[in-house]
Here is the input.
Amino acid sequence: MLILKVAYYEVLKYIRDIRIMAILIVFPNLLFIFVGTGLESVISNSTDSKFNVGIVNLDKEFVGKSFDAFIQKKEIIELLDIKKLNSKDDGLNSLENDSVNFLIFIEENTTKKLQDEKNNGNINIQLYGKTDLMYIESLVNNFIESIKTQNATMKLVRNPVIIDKEDNIEKINSKTTKIPDAMDYYAILNTLQILFLGAVFGVLITSKKQNSDIEIRNNLLPIRKFNFILAKTIGCTFLLIIISIIVVLCSKYIFDANWDGNYLLIIGTLILYCVISIGFGLLIGLFTKKMINGLGLVGLLSTAFGMMSGSLVPVNIPKYFTLINPNYHARQLLFGIIYNYPKNILIEALIVLCIFVLILYGTTILLFRRYSYDNI
Here is the structure.
């Protein structure tokens, strides 16, 4: 009961702080206006700014034919300026010479891999690019999921031989393809970047000696130090979750960003990311000890993680950088839910985010035992 009381006062304290509410609710909406709209021409799906894409399709069977039909869809033609190439080397050379900005490579035996029982119906379409691959990745993953679904259907009816028939190819390409525009892109990325600023709550929990009326009331409660910090963490996490839902609703209904998908999974992802954000703040507060240093480090990490995930300008980041960037994995999970990525991509992103939670809170608990607070 005392834990819930402390959590309640923690939420009440920050709701009364107009500055924090403005930063975490008003600021993201300003970013949607100036960044999402201002950079529309950079990644817009208008005909004036098509993606220049090279395609090497060596598969002559079901997957290859289906992909050829897929890229002829109206919404794809409006988005991509396609250049067909004969080999992977030609594609990489074109990419190097700036003849194309992205390369999609489908190897020769892709259909056989799809039908191979040992491969569990998984296929790999390789993507290359000099800037952020998210838009192209969204299209390709949408196609892969459609292919895998149709292949599974053929296996259920025990007639895999007819998988290459034209009507099956037509079934795949009759589905609506979700294509993110600039506002969809920045709605997700800026939401994640703003939520990472929620790490400030964690820093304030573990580093600041507070003297507000609510803090004095909390400190007088007969509660153990660990439970006290746990209660404040619960309160801040709950508040950040509410803020995330408000930001998402604003971007969806005011700026018409696309958040359509499995809403339970989307909310679950946001909750998980809020937990990670607070965890970073707790750990930073324990390491830096001084509040001002902790807040500065949160700002630096928020900017760095945001830039590495493409929240300001679309960029292509080396794989080893993405491994340590929670924004990237949350981005993958949210885009995967909304734009129908294959399940293995969603599971991989979810596992990495859960590992972040275990590392952050495990380390925090170990370090916390060494610290004492005069006001607790």
Q: What stands out?
A: Residues 276 and 358 are 9 Å apart (CA to CA). Confidence is low (pLDDT under 50) at residues 43-48, 157-175.
